[in-house]
């Protein structure tokens, strides 16, 4: 099975990438193929309007992420929390999933795999592990309701200013264990 | 005073633009100067990274900056996509980090004090309170910048009830604009 990791935020080697990588390491140990996409490396544009209808640009979301999204068995989403929500790259990624929605058309919805497992990862500076449980619930509801995914686990790295993910052996081991269980 | 309107979403003549325009009409009626930016017509990137620190790209956000630094009121308009403001508005809000005291105390001082705010959201769901949580979230964000007198305006059920067909809603929007 293919496990696709998608990471938001501006940092290519930050806490969020490290946490998602640990889940993918576990997945590889269990024999899965993994792909990691850092949205900061891609050129993804917003949904546009053409002739009064929504238009989905033919950019890296369509060309580079599209094929992986259509063949994945599991999705690992990772985002830093900015302004008490997912960051703008992750929100843009979620908005762009609309291409595969029923609203766009059944033929697009059919191309999105069934029963995808999902793991949601958030990182934040605030040193309270439960501070953003509402955002994890929001992410989970989007993926379950719109894409009928199967939620597997949430991962939280709080207080990243004083406790970088790379220093948290217990958290990284838990991430790998979740990856192995996919 | 200057009233700055910023609209997210992909549509340049949709429900959100129409409703924000009505607020600005009201503001002009009360003698205020108004400026409207449609984010769909601008090129505004995400936050960048320089040596592990957050960095700010040079792009069309620079066109809005002089207005942000001289505004007396801010009118934010966005359609709701997936239960939150759309990706253009989220990008704009992330870019406001430039004015956050966490980033730069000096920049923070360039944001006027006591800015009034109006949050305008539009969506297909028929319940006018369906996205109250999003309005609360936007309000909290604005309070973080010491904005005052924050008002909300909701156009629900835009599929069957386009904003243009709702004179009472448009009047309320103009009234909110007049009272800024």
**Quaternary organisation:** heterodimer
Tell me the structural class of chain B.
Answer: alpha/beta
CATH superfamily of chain B: Flavodoxin domain
Helix content of chain A: 25-40%
The number of helical segments of chain A is 6
Ends apart, CA distance between termini of chain A? 9 Å
Radius of gyration of chain A: 16 Å
Instruction: Please name the two chains that share the biggest interface, counting residues whose Cβ lies under 8 Å from a Cβ on the partner chain.
Output: A-B, 29 and 28 residues
Strands of chain B, total number: 8
The major beta sheet of chain A can be summarized as: 6 strands, mixed
What would CATH call the homologous superfamily of chain A? Flavodoxin domain
Q: What CATH architecture label of chain B applies? A: 3-Layer(aba) Sandwich
Number of domains of chain B: 1
**Beta-strand percentage range of chain B:** 25-35%
Estimated radius of gyration of chain B: 16 Å
Write down the CATH class of chain A.
Answer: Alpha Beta
CATH architecture of chain A: 3-Layer(aba) Sandwich
> How many individual helices of chain B?
6
Can you put this structure into words, describing what you see?
The complex is a heterodimer of chains A (182) and B (180). Chain A has helices spanning 15-29, 60-69, 88-96, 106-109, 133-147, 169-180; strands spanning 2-7, 33-38, 48-50, 53-55, 74-82, 85-86, 117-123, 150-157. The model of chain A has no long low-confidence stretch (mean pLDDT 97). Chain A starts with a strand and ends with a helix. Chain A is an alpha/beta fold. In chain A, the strands form 2 sheets. In chain A, strands 1, 2, 5, 6, 7 and 8 form a 6-stranded mixed sheet that branches. A two-stranded antiparallel sheet of chain A has the order 3-4. Chain A has one domain (2-180): Rossmann fold, CATH 3.40.50. Chain A has 6 helices and 8 strands, in the order E-H-E-E-E-H-E-E-H-H-E-H-E-H. In chain B, the strands form 2 sheets. In chain B, strands 1, 2, 5, 6, 7 and 8 form a 6-stranded mixed sheet that branches. A two-stranded antiparallel sheet of chain B has the order 3-4. The longest helix of chain B is centred in the N-terminal third of the chain and has 15 residues, at 15-29. By secondary structure, chain B is α/β, with parallel strands linked by helices.
């Amino acid at each position: 099975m293919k496990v696709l990791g998608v990471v938001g935020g501006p940092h290519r080697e930050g806490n969020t990438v490290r946490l998602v990588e640990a889940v993918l390491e576990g997945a590889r140990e269990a024999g899965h193929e993994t792909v990691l996409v850092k949205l900061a490396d891609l050129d993804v544009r917003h949904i546009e309007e053409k002739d009064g209808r929504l238009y989905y640009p033919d950019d890296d979301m369509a060309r580079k992420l599209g094929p992986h999204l259509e063949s994945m068995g599991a999705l690992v989403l990772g985002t830093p929390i900015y302004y008490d929500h997912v960051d703008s790259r992750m929100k843009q990624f979620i908005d762009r999933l609309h291409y595969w929605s029923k609203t766009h058309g059944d033929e697009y919805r059919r191309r999105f795999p069934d029963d995808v497992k999902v793991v949601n990862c958030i990182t934040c500076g605030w040193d309270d592990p439960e501070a953003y449980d509402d955002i994890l619930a929001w992410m989970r509801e989007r993926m379950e309701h719109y894409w009928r995914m199967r939620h597997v686990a949430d991962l939280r790295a709080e207080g990243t200013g004083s406790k970088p993910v790379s220093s948290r052996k217990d958290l990284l081991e838990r991430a790998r264990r979740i990856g192995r269980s996919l | 005073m200057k009233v700055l309107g910023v609209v997210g979403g992909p549509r340049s003549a949709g429900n959100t633009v129409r409703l924000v325009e009505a607020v600005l009409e009201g503001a002009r009626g009360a003698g205020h100067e108004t400026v409207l930016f449609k984010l769909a017509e601008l090129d505004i990137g995400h936050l960048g990274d320089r040596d592990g620190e957050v960095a700010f790209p040079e792009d069309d956000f620079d066109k809005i900056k002089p207005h942000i630094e001289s505004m007396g009121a801010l009118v934010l308009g966005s359609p709701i996509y997936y239960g939150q403001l759309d990706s253009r508005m989220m990008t704009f809000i992330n870019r406001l980090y430039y004015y956050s005291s966490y980033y730069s105390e000096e920049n923070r001082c360039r944001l006027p004090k006591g800015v009034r705010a109006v949050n305008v959201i539009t969506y297909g769901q028929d319940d006018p309170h369906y996205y109250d949580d999003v309005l609360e979230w936007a309000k909290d964000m604005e309070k973080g910048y010491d904005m005052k007198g924050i008002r909300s305006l909701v156009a629900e059920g835009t599929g069957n009830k386009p904003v243009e067909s709702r004179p009472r809603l448009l009047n309320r929007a103009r009234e909110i604009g007049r009272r800024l």
